[in-house]
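Recap slide: AsnC family transcriptional regulator, sequence and predicted structure.
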Amino acid sequence: MQTKLDPLDRKILRELQNDASQSLDEIARKVGSSKTPVWNRIRKMREGGVIGAQTVLLSPEALGLEACFFVLVRTSEHDAEWQGRFLATLRARPEVQEAHRLAGDIDYILKVRVPNARAYDQFYQALISEVKVFEITALLSMEEIKSTTVLPV
């Protein structure tokens, strides 16, 4: 269900997406309001599910996670037991940054961050030892052109 947001809410969200560590005073000044109304709006947007967890973005390269693989998974299994095991396996693997179930020829796509190709192979071997898959294709990202968590509000 979509939440109704007015222009001030959207300004606040843009500021939070830009830098959530800003003080309420800074955000209020930038959006042309005062601290209390901004705080109340943020609280309501949290309660309404518009604002989820606040976190810190880390540099994968600075942490030695220089290889980003997009992993295409096809399966011949589609029952609930297999899917539950597969999803639990993905959720337990810290290398998996994103996982999506797809429509079309490919069943799942994963975004996997690891230090190098050898680490990807270790991930791959662990994955196929835990759950049966029909086909896996790994695509190494040569260059990250755009990566953002910012939504167009």
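The chain has two domains: 7-47, 67-140.
The domain at 67-140 is CATH 3.30.70.920 (Alpha-Beta Plaits).
(End of recap.)
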